[in-house]
Amino acid sequence: MTKSDNMLSILWMLRSGKRMTAKQLAEELEIHVRTVYRCIDSLCASGVPIIADSGPNGGYSILSRFTDSPLFFDIKEQKALIHASILAKESGYPYSDDLTRAMDKMMRYANEKQLDHLKSHSTALSVIYPRTDGVLQLYLQMLEEAAGQGRTVEMQYDTGKGNNRLPRLFDPYGIVYWKGNWYTVGYCGYREELRNFRVDRIRSLRETEGRFERPAGFSAKDHLLDHLLPKPTGPAQFETVRIKGKEQVLNELCQHWLFGHALVERMPEEAVFQLEHTMLQTYVPYFLMAYSTALQIESELLIGKMVEANARMLAHYEAMLANPTRREEDER
């Protein structure tokens, strides 16, 4: 038998709850006792909680809570894991290679019927994300490891403003995937405050001997969203906006980060939002233009701003039609 078969056989025997010596296992499987030791070491390295007791009544056993747990996943759980691995890999998950090996192990021990089922479902789901390069994946691994171990890193970051990429010490509290990009959140020694950084803008990264403790209860995801969501410049003023439309159209609208956070009530063909005045006067009118006449809006303020925005756009393109030379210069 192969080493994998021997390991699986030993695992099944120990799951019975009996304490067995290496000699008993070797005799049962008709293998050398040294092979048993190697298999036991590999099982322990894989996370199996094997206990070795010495003495006349000693031997190997497994923690009871492990023997009570299911060894294999059912077919729906296997399908969910396959799909989760596809989503993770396509999003640039930093341990995609390890995840692929784990999925290979699961499929290796599937029977023919299960294998056909898994293969058919592995091609039924596709994900379109920007591909990540090897350097980005390496940086994600380093940041995740540093966050888990509480280790400070030294980072050079491109702010996109043409300034010098000064090395800065950074305590990564976590990494976050949001809308096609990876971010890292933590304490920046250069700015002496909590900061968010796009991982694809990191130009160099190395571990240091410095250590840190992440604040208790800190959420990298919450901090990132709080930083990225628009903030009012003065006292916040909100407008209740009721939008009607087909259910599918409203579903798409509610998936947008701004409207999703502002949703207060939802019916099949109607949604109510609490939107901040500053956003209603700037971003929201232009965003809703993409929906053309598919929406019915109940808010005089928002309707007025959309009329103004459309009038400015109309005047802009009418001017371009009236002056073709200027249009050609703009295109150049």
From TrEMBL:
<dbReference type="Pfam" id="PF08279">
    <property type="entry name" value="HTH_11"/>
</dbReference>
<dbReference type="InterPro" id="IPR036390">
    <property type="entry name" value="WH_DNA-bd_sf"/>
</dbReference>
<feature type="domain" description="WYL">
    <location>
        <begin position="140"/>
        <end position="206"/>
    </location>
</feature>
<dbReference type="InterPro" id="IPR036388">
    <property type="entry name" value="WH-like_DNA-bd_sf"/>
</dbReference>
<protein>
    <submittedName>
        <fullName>WYL domain-containing transcriptional regulator</fullName>
    </submittedName>
</protein>
<feature type="domain" description="Helix-turn-helix type 11">
    <location>
        <begin position="8"/>
        <end position="60"/>
    </location>
</feature>
<dbReference type="Pfam" id="PF13280">
    <property type="entry name" value="WYL"/>
</dbReference>
<dbReference type="InterPro" id="IPR026881">
    <property type="entry name" value="WYL_dom"/>
</dbReference>
<dbReference type="InterPro" id="IPR013196">
    <property type="entry name" value="HTH_11"/>
</dbReference>
<dbReference type="InterPro" id="IPR051534">
    <property type="entry name" value="CBASS_pafABC_assoc_protein"/>
</dbReference>
